[in-house]
Amino acid sequence: MTKIKPIYYLYRGDDLIDSGTAQELAERRHVKVDTIRFYGSPANHRRKKGRGIVAEKVS
After folding, report:
1. Tell me: the pLDDT tens digits for 17-41?
2. Residue 20: CB partners within 8 Å, gap ≥ 6?
3. Is there a contact between 58 and 48 (Cβ–Cβ < 8 Å)?
4. pLDDT at 5 > cutoff 90
């Protein structure tokens, strides 16, 4: 059985920047996979409040 990897959408404000798995986004953005996961964390959402990059985990 194959595990399905979650898809993330990266936003800056209301603008969609990119989408893909954490690994794909990390390679394209030149950051660590953990950074992409942090962008989706509640702590990052509280800090940014509409500014900076945030991620939404879709699946």
Report:
1. 999 999 999 999 999 999 999 999 9
2. 7, 8, 28
3. no
4. no
Distance CA 14, CA 52 (A): 10
pTM of this structure: 0.84
Collapsing DSSP to helix, strand or coil, 10 comes out as: strand
40-58 pLDDT, tens digit each: 999 988 887 767 888 998 9
For residue 11, the tally of other CB atoms under 10 A from its CB is 18
Report the SS3 class of residue 44: helix
Q: What is the 3-state secondary structure (H, E, C) of 14-43?
A: CEEEEEEEHHHHHHHHCCCHHHHHHHCCHH
